[in-house]
Amino acid sequence: MHKFVSAAVAAAVIISCTQAHAQDVRYYAGVTTGSSKASLKNTSGERFTSTNHPIPFKLYGGVELTEHFAVEAGYTRATDRHEFDKRLTGGTETARLSSQVAYVALKGTMALGESVDVYGKAGVAYNRYDMDGAGAGDFTLSGAKAMAGVGVAYNINDKLALTFELEHYGRVREGKISLTQNRLHAGVKFSF
Length: 192
Known about the structure:
By secondary structure, the protein is mainly beta. It is built from one helix and eleven strands; from the N terminus they run αβββββββββββ. An eight-stranded antiparallel beta barrel has the order 1-4-5-7-8-9-10-11. Strands 2-3 form a two-stranded antiparallel ribbon. It is elongated. The model has no long low-confidence stretch (mean pLDDT 89).
């Protein structure tokens, strides 16, 4: 993850420095949240849904290079780990899964009117999963994958917008383990 974060920071700095003299460059930052559930299959193929619903959140920021294009970086995770019934692993402890994502993406925006924008994102996401309480099934799994997203923003004014977006952070696989993260978020974006 260190290499990914270093590359993301370097790209953001280079782009910011390159565009620093342009008068129309704007910066933005935001926070989102949504609902959360997770499901896993055991070795018999039986699917288990998490027994709790940690609250996911995302922090992000970006540089609008033009009216229609931006570079964005973000970080998302949940406030707690997803917990699963002991039958998932056949163990005596509750299995718990945590996930987090850091991403860098290009964002394209199109206005649908004075107050509504639609946008799409494409980039790279670094996913990390940690499972504990599963005994021999404990694991840490991580990897960088292509990510994509779509969203809509309702602009309250030129500094504040309400956002609603769906993002897919890719599928990470190792052996028989295959995990995917999709997030549906609502939040606020501040421009400055």
